[in-house]
Amino acid sequence: MKFTLAPLPYAYDVLEPVIDAKTMEIHYSKHHQAYVNNLNAALEKYPTLPEQTIEQLLINLEKLPADIQTAVRNNGGGHFNHTMFWSLLVPEKKYLAPSTTLLARIVKDFGSFDAMKEQFSNAAKTRFGSGWAWLIVDTTGKLKVTSTANQDVPFKEGKPVLGLDVWEHAYYLNYQNRRPDYITNFFKIINWKKVEENLR
Ligand code: MN
Q1: Ligand 1 centre and the CA of 9: distance in Å?
Q2: pTM for the full model?
């Protein structure tokens, strides 16, 4: 089982000024590539492991040999999270607000779009250290905001549909300590069509 880094679906500079080209280049070609390489290195120790998707590997982590569980959790999580993250971003000029259907669902579960945005932003701001803020569909089918540490994916809570990387490597070159500004600007480049696809 060998994982590969899929091509980034756009050029490094298309998300400027929200995310600068240098950050995108390092984030994708160094950080994400390292997660893929380290994941493969861990799995190579057990060539007879059955073929699994990245989701299956992470959901069934405790069934893996004990000595590679941490490496797969961290690097497999990193691979899954970043693949999803790239797919969720669009240039500001191509931004599309949530569809009527998606908006109705957000309003049903949060009261309003702004209430969801506030909860999500707070989760992203208050995640101490490195981690992710998430919009998920929980096990009862309800949209919910949560956050995780490191590269953990909230599969136990539900299915992630929108994620924001709040590791310093995701914003420090451009925003330094101003994580709240990065979070505010993130809302200008969300691909809500993709979020809706993830909900299906
Ligand atoms: Mn990252």
Answers
A1: 16
A2: 0.96
